[in-house]
Amino acid sequence: MRPTPHHNPSARATEAFDGGVRRLPVIAAAILDTVLILTFAALGRDAHHRGDVVTGVLLTAWPFLAGAALGWLAQRAWRSPWALRSAGLGIWGAAVIGGMLLRLATGQSVALAFIIVTMIVLGLFILGPRAIHALVRRRRRSAETFS
């Protein structure tokens, strides 16, 4: 009788390692989205010379983080977290629209200028890394083709 992966400790370890390696791009993309949304909030608060740094940044960022999380869920972004169209656009749209709706619902300001700046900055922050990732992958593939 051949041992199955469930009875073979070595196969289980390899399976667990492979699963962990496959999750790394998802974790990296989620962490990067979170850090960049927090950076957006920190830059905005700094530009307006607002005090109360840590709690202020979290107060500004949470609606956009929640919106981005909804975007991750709606797009099932974990399937292809670095995809510009299938993940990035949905996450960006949800972060902006969801963030603004949550700000409105909680009595925070939503001025037109803020909406425009948010769309631009979060677009650069959420879509930019994914566009760079796509460009790097494309160049690697073309380099492999010519090798």
What does this structure look like?
By secondary structure, this protein is mostly helical. The chain is built from four helices and no strands. It has helices spanning 9-47, 53-75, 84-105, 112-146.
**Any low-confidence stretches, pLDDT <50, length ≥5?**
13-18
Tally the beta strands.
0
The major sheet is characterized as:
none
Structural class: mainly alpha
What's the helical proportion of residues?
over 70%
Measured by DSSP, the beta-strand proportion falls in: under 5%
Provide the gyration radius in Å. Answer: 20 Å
- What's the number of helices? 4
Mean pLDDT: 86
Global outline? elongated
- Give the SSE order as H and E letters: HHHH
* Termini separation: 45 Å
